[in-house]
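For the sake of transparency, this paper describes our internal protein records without simplification. An entry from our holdings is shown next, in its original layout:
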Amino acid sequence: MPRLVTGQFDPTTQKAVWPSTGNYCRGGAYDSALLACESIAILPEGMSKERFEWLAKVAGETIKTPGSESNVKEIFDKCKELRASGQDLMIFNQFEEFGNYLWHYEVTGHAMEEVFKQAAGKNGKYRGMASATGSAGTIASGDYMKQLFPDSKIVASEALQCPTLLENGFGAHRIEGIGDKHVPWIHNAKNTDVVVAIDDNAVVNLARLFNEENGRAYLAEKGVPESLISNLDLLGFSGISNVLSCIKAAKYYEMGEDDIMLTVLTDSMELYRSRLHEMHQEFGEYSERDAAADFARYLHGQSTDNMLELRYTDRRRVHNLKYYTWVEQQGRTYEEIQQQWYEPNYWTDVQRQADEIDELIVEFNKEVGLV
């Protein structure tokens, strides 16, 4: 939207390119369809088949890049190739578009405030939010909430099999939709309090517990209300990971029944039914014994391992990891990366752009006849 209403993007002449690890390019292709604009969706070939089936109906073109969830560089390489192709393109790189940060700061942040007020009652205390870093959009809502509740925590989550923020690490994993092996340009690392790493085995096995017949029967036996069980398919892989991140933070800070952690269920099992089928083929039927083991190990057994409360120097280390992607590969400058860390008003100046962009949106809607 910021590029559209400032005239940087012309949907009547330009193709919109949406580089993604799966979800963002779906939204981008949908928006392009609303604008009658040609679109190119880019995502790793190893993502679930449901994503590709959906894109085949909506996106003008879908490009599959090598690898799976953690292969973000290959997506960036494809963008570089497209820039050099001579086509008239606008590449909306979610990992560096401040419209992404600003949307979640303003919209998701206010939504979280509303949810907290509804859930808090008389004694509820907001303690923080947890989110997979992904493109660092959603986690920006934590910046908004921390301005309301200065003692609250922002918990950044990633896969244990690819512990980029935790250990400067690398690898491949199965928590689709969260992206990694780099630090997004729009991640406000200076405001991040905790990093947790979630075992992807916990995520995929809890997906079975929450959705298989024997898994749901076991949860009912343990006293979980049917109203909750029937809605567990609202948690996709990244949603499960986010919930586990909240559990780990709650245990680390010894939270009680009045303490509230917030997170986002970023997608549902609608995108992962094929993964359940694949696990059936590989591991067989899901039994009550499997359900009991997964419940004990991956839900009640979540501990405070594989997490780090960030000191100032830890936050600076995470921020400095941006250099290898954004300065060496993506054309950002050394001066810019220094400004993000040392300029005290850098992030608040971004946040203040919301009102101006809203005014431009109103003007744009009037000009094109939507008001």
